[in-house]
Amino acid sequence: MLPRFGYMLNFLKTIERNVFHMFGHPPRELALVQIYEKQLPHPKKSFSIKDIVGDGFLLAVPKFRRTIEKKLKRKFGYPEYVWKMLVPKTNIKVCNECGHHHERGRLCEHCYKKVEKETKEIQAKIQEKLGNSPIEKDVIVLYEGENSPNMPNEFWNGKRVVEMKKERPQWFSKNLLQKSTQQPSDSTDVKPTDLA
Fold first, then answer.
1. Mean of the pLDDT values across residues 182-193?
2. Cα angle 156, 161, 175; round to 5
C-alpha cells in the first residue's frame, strides 16, 4: 500500500510541475540563476619584478642554515690555510705615569681619560664665559695661582683669558695648551715618495 501511495504522489507532482511550466509560471523550487555578461578583453600586461616589489626592495636571505663546522671555520679559521685562534698578546707594557697596562705603540687609556676629562672641563669653562658664539680669537687658560706670562702688549692683543678655579694638575703640562711651534712652510718643492 505504501509503495503505491508514494508512486501516485510522485506522479501527481510531475503533472503539476509540467502544467505550471506550460503556462509560464515559475517553478516552486528554489533555483540558481546566473546572469552572463560579456566582459571586455583586458590588454595583456608584461609581468615584471616591479609588480611584486613596488617601491620596496628585496633582501638576500640565506636558503640554508650555516653548519657548526662552517661557523667555527669562519670564526677561528682553518689550520691548513688561515688560523685565527686567540693567542696571548706579548706587546703589553706598564705605563710610567700611572702604572696601568697598555699596548706598546699606543697611548695609555687611563692617562688619556684623565686628559680628556680635564679638556672637557676647560671647554665647559670657555663655553660658560664666552658663550656659543664662534671663537675667532685665541684663548689662554690660567689655573689658580698662575700669573699671566710676561709678554709684550702685542701678544695680548685680541686674546681672551679664561681662569680655572683650581690648581693645575701635575700631569697637565702647560705645553698641552700651546700651539705647535713649527711654522708653516712656504716651500713648493715636492718630495718623492718612492725613496728606498
1. 67
2. 85
**Rounded CA separation 62/64 (Å):** 6
Asked if 97 and 111 touch (Cβ cutoff 8 Å), the reply is yes
- Sequence-separated (6 or more) residues with CB below 8 Å from residue 135: 126, 160
| Contact indicator for 144, 167 with CB cutoff of 8 Å | yes
44-57 as b/e: b if 16+ CB within 10 A: eeeeeeeeeeeeee
| Range of lowest pLDDT (9-23, 109-123, 177-191) | 177-191
Dump pLDDT digits (tens) for 16-67.
Answer: 777 766 666 655 565 556 666 777 676 677 777 777 777 777 778 888 999 9
Q: Which residues pair with 162 in a beta bridge?
A: 141
Residues in the chain, how many?
Answer: 196
